[in-house]
Structure formats: structure tokens, C-alpha cells
Amino acid sequence: MTAASPLRLASVADLIGRPACDGGGEPLGRVEDLVVDLDADRLAYALLSFGGFVRADRLFAMPVRLLSVDAGDTVTVRVDRTMLKNAPAIAPGGRAILADRRWGLKVYSYFGYTPYWE
Fold first, then answer.
1. What is the rounded CA–CA span in Å between residue 28 and residue 80?
2. Are strands 59-62 and 42-50 parallel, antiparallel or unpaired?
3. Taking the domains of the chain in order of start, what are their residue ranges?
4. Which DSSP string do the residues of 33-98 spell out, in sequence order?
5. Measuring CA to CA, which residue among 32, 33, 30, 56 is closest to residue 44?
6. What is the architecture, at CATH level 2, of domain 12-110?
7. Which class for 89: exposed (0-12), middle (13-18), buried (19 or more C-beta within 10 A)?
8. Which tens digits make up the pLDDT trace of 7-65?
9. pTM for the predicted model, two decimal places
10. Coil, strand or helix: which one is 105?
11. Are residues 61 and 98 in contact, defined by beta-carbon separation less than 8 angstroms?
């Protein structure tokens, strides 16, 4: 990317509620929220719900870089369905754990990434 290349930007309001699909275009669930680390000026997590094949009463936190957005309304999650079934999850109302760096390390490590704060 060069300095003259346009930035790829998206409004958080436009992403929340979008359908989430796997790499083959099969529906998984939807984007419920994006969590901002105010101290680091970074998106810390995407929170997704997945209907049907995993615990529907949970939200799944993952590094935002696992998501890609197409020109339409779909967010693609670049993770295998089997991996999603065992991904770290939080119960509704349990969002306080998102601020715990040890839990965040568990999430990033599970998906094979080094946390941005390290």
C-alpha cells in the first residue's frame, strides 16, 4: 500500500448487526459489537454471535483481523467452524472480562495471534 492508496474505512455502526459467514459464504451469525481499547486507540475485539451450531447464549470475542468485509453487507470470518465451537466465549452481561489482559491473551493465542499490546 502506498501513501496515495485510499484507506479502507468502515463505520462501526454499519458493521454492527451485519451477517457473518464462513469463507464459503455459509451463514454463521452476526457481528454484535466491536470493542475499542481507549488507551491504545485500537479495536481490541469483534464480538460475534453464532446461531445454531454453537452456544447461542454466548458472545465470541476474536481479533478483528479475522474478519473481512465485502462490498455488500457480509462479514467473512476467516476461521474454521470447528475452531469456533471451542472458542473463548462470554455470557451476556460478562463483558467486564474483556478488560482482563490474561483473558485477552487466551483469546488471541487461541486464534494464533500475538495480542497487539505485547
1. 11
2. antiparallel
3. 12-110
4. EEEEETTTTEEEEEEEEE-SSS-TT-EEEE-GGGEEE-SSS-EEE-S-HHHHHTS-EE-TT-GGGG
5. 33
6. Roll (2.30)
7. buried
8. 777 888 888 999 999 888 888 888 999 999 999 999 999 999 887 655 557 899 999 99
9. 0.85
10. helix
11. yes
